[in-house]
């Protein structure tokens, strides 16, 4: 359950993750202490925005919502595109919605924010000077992205048609999970939870970040003002836990074997 940085730049693959928070300074403090990130200013189209760096390489983005926008905070997964405008048209024609853009983010690239037919929000990124996450597989970097929805079969055709994914069922018959591949490389997953309750916002994309020790990282999350949503447990891909940051944005931490 890891995606190499080079693979992330294939059209359709998750290539970047970004968070819009209410307090940029508090969010930077949280993730800086948890993952060792350093921050530098990025494009300011929607207000204050910074890119997070690890070992001098870009790994994620963090922005600040306008004071009058009282929205729940969440990580957004961006999918790579060679032509953001054409991808936006394809999203609309396949039953999805484009809420923002496409628009330029300075010379870094062109982006849009959309949602699938079930309402899960994701981004589109056509990279120019900034192609996306430059480092993956190391502690503190995003290593996997997963759509959590009611049934995989309902949204699978949308992602296949828009982004060219090839899907492969995983697990036993009572576990509804698809791995999405591009040119034979696993790049993301779709987890169908059936009748289990979803978060208040409905279907969503979940970002997994690598950590050296899941249990220690989960404790650190709570020390920094976050909380544990699902305690650490072992999986075939490593020990993982679902957590939320100091403003409630959910993500998963995973210690790979």
Automatic annotation (TrEMBL):
- Matching InterPro entries, A to Z? Anthracycline_SecMetBiosynth, Glyas_Bleomycin-R_OHBP_Dase, Glyoxalase_6, VOC_core
Residue span(s) of domain VOC: 13-127, 141-256
Q: Which UniProt keywords apply?
A: Dioxygenase, Oxidoreductase
Q: Which GO terms describe its molecular function?
A: dioxygenase activity
- Family matches, as CDD domains: SgaA_N_like (cd07247)
> One Pfam annotation, family name?
Glyoxalase_6
Q: Which SUPFAM superfamilies match?
A: Glyoxalase/Bleomycin resistance protein/Dihydroxybiphenyl dioxygenase
| Lineage top rank: taxon | Bacteria
PROSITE patterns for this protein: VOC (PS51819)
Protein name from the UniProt record: Glyoxalase/bleomycin resistance/extradiol dioxygenase family protein
């Amino acid at each position: 359950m890891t995606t190499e940085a080079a693979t992330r730049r294939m059209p359709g693959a998750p290539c970047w993750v970004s968070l819009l928070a209410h307090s940029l300074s508090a969010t930077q403090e949280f993730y800086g202490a948890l993952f060792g990130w350093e921050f530098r200013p990025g494009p300011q189209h929607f207000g204050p925005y910074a890119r997070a760096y690890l070992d001098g390489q870009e790994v994620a983005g963090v922005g600040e919502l306008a004071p009058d926008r009282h929205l729940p905070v969440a990580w957004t997964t961006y999918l790579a595109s060679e032509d953001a405008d054409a991808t936006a048209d394809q999203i609309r024609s396949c039953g999805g919605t484009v809420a923002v853009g496409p628009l330029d983010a300075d010379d870094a690239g062109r982006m849009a924010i959309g949602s699938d037919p079930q309402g899960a929000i994701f981004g589109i990124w056509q990279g120019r000077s900034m192609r996306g996450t430059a480092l993956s597989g190391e502690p503190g970097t995003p290593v996997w992205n997963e759509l959590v929805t009611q049934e995989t079969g309902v949204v699978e055709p949308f992602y296949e048609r828009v982004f060219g994914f090839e899907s492969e069922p995983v697990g036993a018959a009572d576990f509804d999970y698809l791995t999405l591949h591009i040119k034979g490389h696993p790049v993301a997953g779709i987890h169908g939870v059936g009748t289990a309750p979803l978060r208040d916002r409905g279907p969503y994309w979940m970002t997994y970040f690598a950590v050296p020790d899941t249990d220690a990282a989960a404790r650190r999350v709570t020390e920094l003002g976050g909380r544990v949503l699902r305690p650490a447990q072992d999986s075939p891909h490593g020990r993982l836990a679902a957590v939320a940051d100091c403003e409630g944005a959910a993500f998963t931490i995973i210690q790979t074997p």
